[in-house]
Amino acid sequence: MDTKDNFKLVKLNVGGKRFITYYDTLKPSTYFQALVKNEKANCAVFITKNGDQELFIDRDGELFEDIMRYLRSFEVRSRDREYLEKLMHEAEFFKFHELTYKIQSILNNYIDEYNNVDFELVDASSRFTFLQNGSKKIDTIKQDGSTIIAGFSYAATDGKTSKFVRMTPKKK
């Protein structure tokens, strides 16, 4: 392939979302390398309309948007574990190995982070101060240097009681 092809614009339609990028941006992916070379790949088809060629790929366009963001900035945006697992699955499909390794590293840190803490269910009482916004989502709560990471309410026989899960570093 000629080096001028690196600057060739590639039009993509991934799951209904359209992207225009340089081939050079997609080049880290062996999936796209094979696609450009062979003009075929898994879940992909070239569509020509009025002399304009677009590549349709039957995958998740929202996730591919984050893959493109990574290819341009080398940053992984989402820190939600479930989303990262989906993003890693897509990165594996498209054979973006560096992104796959980066996401795996982030997911491994999730595991390490939670292996080094203890969780304790505690009753809410006057010793806790917290703010609850209009959406009834409780934000991070701090008490005596411990971070409480979740809160919920339930109805007991004596009325409404709140419970919280406290996360503290494990004692060595």
From TrEMBL:
Pfam families: BTB_2. GO terms for biological process: protein homooligomerization. It comes from the Eukaryota. CDD domains: BTB_POZ_KCTD-like. Residues 8-111 form the BTB domain. InterPro entries: BACURD1-3, BTB/POZ_dom, SKP1/BTB/POZ_sf, T1-type_BTB. PANTHER family: BTB/POZ DOMAIN-CONTAINING ADAPTER FOR CUL3-MEDIATED RHOA DEGRADATION PROTEIN FAMILY MEMBER (PTHR11145), RE57120P (PTHR11145:SF8). This is BTB domain-containing protein.
